[in-house]
Amino acid sequence: MLTLHVTGGGRWKAALCSVGDCLCLLGGGESGTYVRGAAKVVAGRASIDLPEHFGMVTEQVGLTVQLTPRGKWLQLFIAELTTQRLTVHEEEGRDGEFDYLVQGFRRNGKHQVIRERSARADRLTAS
Prior knowledge:
Elements: E1 11-19, E2 22-28, E3 32-41, E4 45-49, H1 52-57, E5 64-70, E6 76-81, E7 85-90, E8 96-105, E9 112-116, H2 119-126
Antiparallel strand pairs: 1-2, 1-9, 3-8, 4-7, 5-8, 6-7
């Protein structure tokens, strides 16, 4: 577990997990998970298999996605979203590239840490 102290006061939550050889950290007001990447729509369709580890630690309810077209305007929308798969369609059936960010809630919120800032942490960040 890791607790982050930031300037500006209040509380800060951090979720820490180990995936393979990397250490993943997502901080914010909730215990969340994410996966991101790049893909292509061909004839207006893209189907992306999400990593197994994402489905293992993420609730099915509360998933959100951000889609960012690359190089040209695309009318992208989410046709299907689970913790295992993201299916994206383009309204006019065009080809193109895009980036995606899928976010969710961590199962049971077990990796959530909340701690008030201490006076010592305030002194350390001020110096």
